[in-house]
From TrEMBL:
The lineage of its organism: Bacteria, Bacillati, Actinomycetota, Actinomycetes, Pseudonocardiales. SMART domains: acidPPc. This is Undecaprenyl-diphosphatase. The chain crosses the membrane at residues 7-26, 55-75, 82-103, 123-142, 149-173, 179-197. It comes from Amycolatopsis umgeniensis. Keywords: Hydrolase, Membrane, Transmembrane, Transmembrane helix. GO terms for molecular function: undecaprenyl-diphosphatase activity. The keyword Transmembrane applies. It comes from the Bacteria. InterPro entries: PAP2/HPO, PAP2/HPO_sf.
Amino acid sequence: MTLQRGLYILAGLLLLVGFVTLGLLVDDRPPPVDVALADAFRGQYTRPAGQVADLITNVLGPVLPFALGAVLVMIAWRRRELAVLCVKLAVVLMLCRLTSLVAKPLFYRERPREFPDLSYPSGHVVAVACTGFVAVLLCAWTRPRLTRLAITIAVAATVIGALCRVVLGVHWLTDTAGSVLAVGGVGLISAAGLGLLPRPGDPA
């Protein structure tokens, strides 16, 4: 294992520690920032802002990993030399997406308002973040010049998705922060373990 790959794994482990620590800290009682935002947006889900947020999260949500998975299948089918890369990216995508499904029962946190399912971490934000993470890796390996643009779009989409979930009152702010920590941790560890990090062209 190279030093740089080891650093990626270490960073991933630290993010996962942060994810677990945050989950334990907010599990019983939401912090003031959560309460303040929940109060500020209370009832917005029935108003125009909430309706817009709902429309956005229909796109920036669980459908995204499936869409990217279909893209990876198409790339692997049309360009056989990229098949192994696409399989590795699909594994990272799947592992990152599983973070919310595995973690929610461990952190039995209630939503800001009555809503099905548990709260920590946000499954919608996990879906957006893991899609963005893998899309950045895909660009880094196939279209390096688009990597910075992919990072910008991924970050913007994750922030917008997180804001929409808070506006709708179905997640606390810390739920969305935990989602990013979880995806970042699992993403870095799995990508480094599969040889996708360091990226091509990264300094040694």
